[in-house]
Amino acid sequence: MTPITTNHPVADVRDLWADGGVPAGPAQLALLAYRSNLLGRDRAVANFGGGNTSVKARETDHAGREIDVLWVKGSGSDLATITADGFTGLRLDEIEPLFGREAMSDADMVAYLARCQLDPAMPRSSIETLLHAFVPAPHVDHTHPDAINAITGSRDGERLARECFGDEVAWIPYVRPGFALARQIGAAVRERPGLRAVLMAKHGLVCWGETAEESYRRTIAVINQAARFVRERAGEPPGMAVPVDDEAADALLAGLLPVLRGAVASGHGKVLVVDRSPDVLEFACRTDAGELSQVGAACPDHLVHTKRTPLWIPYDPDRDDLDTLAARVRAGAEAFRDGEAAYFRANATSGELPADPNPRVVLIERVGAVTTGRDRRQALVSRDLFRRAVVVQRSATAIDSFVSLTDEESFAVEYWPLELYKLSLAPEPGELAGRVALITGAAGGIGGAVASRLAAAGAAIVGTDLDARQVEAEAPHGLLALPMDVTDEAAVHDAFRRATLEFGGVDIVVSSAGLASSAPITETSLELWETNYAVLARGYFLVAREAFRVLEAQASGGAIVFIASKNALVAGKGAAAYSSAKAAELHLARCLAEEGGAAGIRVNTVNPDAVLQGSRIWDSSWREERARTYGIGTDELEDFYRERSGLGVNVLPEDIAAAVLHFASDARSGKSTGNILNVDGGVTAAYPR
Ligand code: ZN
């Protein structure tokens, strides 16, 4: 790849108002949602979860009285996707007198605002509600735009703001959001009627208008004025190293990500996301990236998702091999945790609980960023916010030098109960949160049910089968579908590599790929024999070997589950090829349990019997062959198997999936390996002994 050159620290944002779809009619809330969505559509205007919007309107309350209402974004929503019911209505005449107060604690403010809600069932209003109430305009927008934060994050930001905007904007020094900040903003706007906007140091922008359109368009115009100013003022671009190209980066990351994943796990699963987008890759190539990336957070809003700084990993492709880099990652993660512990000790005052001390962003020189999360969604939020931080930091550096929140200011936001409340609104992580599960035979009845069950428990799912399109057709939300023939050594290697590049590694491997055949021994062709052994013995070996390689690199345990068969234990008459191959599979699991123990890798087997529903095996000639063996019609098979079982039940794919979840989950079976769990309705001959 050629070296990166940059002369455009920050780009203009587009005015989207007239793109169509402006809601007609008097409904102020619909218009507010529309305006909010436009602001959120461009993350250079409003980052994920950040910013808030409001409208002041006349409404009729529950008693039929006409009152003034402040509609403001509820806590925990995102402007890009918010709908009318994401806003909270507050009685404005009860809030306005607060402007006369000198001070108000966060707890008092939250309790007071809760009592002003039109309906207690509405979401808690944004922690920046009061700034909307105190700015005397019908429509108010507060955002954290890149171009504005380039100025507000500059050492000499106040002077630069004046040079860019003259007297048309007010400058408010950094204060944590809350009553005091809202009051200062309200006072600035009330004192100076000609004002167009308020800039908040190391934080963001407030604009307002008589109409929704005016407020939105002013936000966009002010951002673009700042963007032009930054481009005009930008000094010499920094020195740039040559980025590692895509192929070399993939080769490196396929080996490094499992190590990194293990290094930041601390007993939890983590999903990783690689970011080589142009802005982030360029940042990773700056010759000053090692220093600039370590200055601190660009905006209070980024902190809980990015922490103060990324973990910086220097990398020189000409000198460093994978082992060197892996050692650097392990040592770096440990040093990062030590740094977080020291930061916590230095700033904790009132019984706060330490947050996960692992990095959320790892920046690898010349390669890009890797973000981490308890699930993919969290890792993507960190990625998106780090992209914003990168643009702000490079732009501030282009016109001045970048200043971040201090450690004290950062701690006050990161451990602020009101910020933590926002996080608490996210759904509880499932028991497999942060775990990555790779399933073979995922297009089949059992494989598909396993994918759904593990996804519902919070795992990130990689579903593989001969035909990836069939996996996709049954896909639970968010599944990565990959083609994989388990008998093909290169294909197995490739699928694990792609899973690693997508999620950072693998924790749970469920081998469910299968086939079945039935024939008397004298009629069993060599081809039939070898097909059974290719899938059930060789295929299970190849998948398990690759799984072990990834799991050992992660060094954080793992669970392998084989789907075998009752026939692995019971001599199957007229199915010698299938049954003996299943027995080989079962014994392979026990051998691997023995071998994986020291690394915490558990290997267990689930033995289904006669799972006809949704099965592609049972749609094949196997159904007729089994029926013939038992001397019954194919439509009688289901009844036959039910009556044969001790419990008198049919076994369904969901029953197998529940057993797989048991073995996949450390919480349920963390001390079990080398086990067999029959899910067959009770077949005496298959009782293990
Ligand atoms: Zn804010």
Give a short synopsis of this structure.
With 689 residues, the chain is α/β, with parallel strands linked by helices. It is built from 25 helices and 18 strands.
Keywords:
689 residues, alpha/beta, seven-stranded mixed beta sheet, seven-stranded parallel beta sheet, 25 helices, 14% strand, elongated, binds zinc ion
Describe this structure in words.
- Helices cover 44% and strands 14% of the residues.
- A 7-stranded mixed sheet has the order 3-2-1-4-7-6-5, sandwiched between helices. Strands 14-13-12-15-16-17-18 form a 7-stranded parallel sheet, sandwiched between helices.
- It is elongated and about 100 Å long.
- Strand 9, helix 13 and strand 10 (361-364) form a beta-alpha-beta unit.
- Helix 5 (146-152) packs across helix 14.
- It is built from 25 helices and 18 strands.
- The chain binds zinc ion.
- The site of zinc ion has 7 residues, from loops.
Radius of gyration: 30 Å
Residues in helix, %: 40-55%
Name the bound molecules: zinc ion
Averaged pLDDT, please? 92
Q: Which structural class matches the secondary elements?
A: alpha/beta
Dominant shape: elongated
Poorly predicted regions? none
Largest sheet: 7 strands, mixed
Number of strands: 18
Strand order of the largest sheet: 3-2-1-4-7-6-5
Query: What amount of the residues lies in strands?
Result: 5-15%
Q: Span from first to last CA?
A: 61 Å
Present the secondary structure layout.
Blueprint: H1 28-41, E1 52-60, E2 66-73, E3 87-91, H2 92-95, H3 106-116, H4 129-134, E4 139-143, H5 146-152, H6 157-165, E5 169-172, H7 179-191, E6 197-200, E7 204-209, H8 212-233, H9 246-263, E8 271-275, H10 278-285, H11 289-292, H12 303-306, E9 311-313, H13 322-347, E10 361-364, E11 368-373, H14 376-399, H15 407-414, H16 417-424, E12 436-439, H17 445-456, E13 460-465, H18 468-473, E14 480-483, H19 489-503, E15 508-511, H20 526-554, E16 558-563, H21 576-596, E17 601-608, H22 621-630, H23 637-644, H24 653-664, H25 666-669, E18 676-679
Parallel strand pairs: 5-6, 9-10, 12-13, 12-15, 13-14, 15-16, 16-17, 17-18
Antiparallel strand pairs: 1-2, 1-4, 2-3, 4-7, 6-7, 8-11, 10-11
Helix pairs in contact: 5-8, 5-14, 9-13, 9-19, 9-20, 17-24, 19-20, 20-21
Bound molecules: zinc ion.
